[in-house]
Amino acid sequence: MRPFLLLASREDDAAADSEVAAFRRCGGLPADGLHRIRMEAGPLPTLDLDDYSGVFVGGSPFTSSDPEAEKSDVQVRVEKEILGLLDEIVDRDFPYLGACYGVGTLGVQQGAVVDTTYGEPVSAVPVTLSADGLADPLLAGMPPVFHAYVGHKEACTRLPDSAVLLASSPSCPVQMFRVRTNLYATQFHPELDVRGLVERIELYQGNGYFPLGEADSVIAEVRRTAVTHPSRIMRNFVERYART
């Protein structure tokens, strides 16, 4: 099988390693089935998409909607490089699944309005599939309503005409969308099980995703809700697009 490519941008080594482990675990991928590039560590190397089965984009400490003058040089470079690669990915309709930061990348590339209107604290929220979501092959086997983990400062306020809304939640109208046939973005984290989320909560204390000093109570709260279905999206993506 050709590996899947994970474009990551977490500067903290522990967070970066936890993320790649979560993608492998929830996607059912062996170690050599996922090739990670840490975009924050240096310029994006020349890539041939034909070497891969598909592309994942993980979460990020970057906020796409921040004023340009407030973005670091690293963020500006990463955004420029990923948007450049997305031009090719979209043009080819190459399999793509962006989780959380995927909305801020594919959404921006397509002309969506992405801002802080619908940010959500770290929590498990009920996600409802639209009629298009119920019919989408990537969501095969998913119930009409399921719980998923979220934690983000920005979200999509208005989808572009090119996008199809697949899922929403009471506190965030755009939880998942599709562009063309094979390009997907989720605001929730399909790659996170409770183990992965707890690791992330412990690593990102003080980063504004929940009140400082409340990590233990946030962990206790997310443990109360069973979140088991979103990882099926990861498995469906891998099974649908894996190429030899």
TrEMBL record:
Residues 49-192 form the Glutamine amidotransferase domain. Signal peptide: none annotated. One of its GO terms (cellular component) is cytosol. SUPFAM superfamilies: Class I glutamine amidotransferase-like. InterPro entries: ChyE-like, Class_I_gatase-like, GATASE. Gene3D superfamilies: 3.40.50.880. Pfam families: GATase. This is GMP synthase (Glutamine-hydrolysing). It comes from Sanguibacter antarcticus.
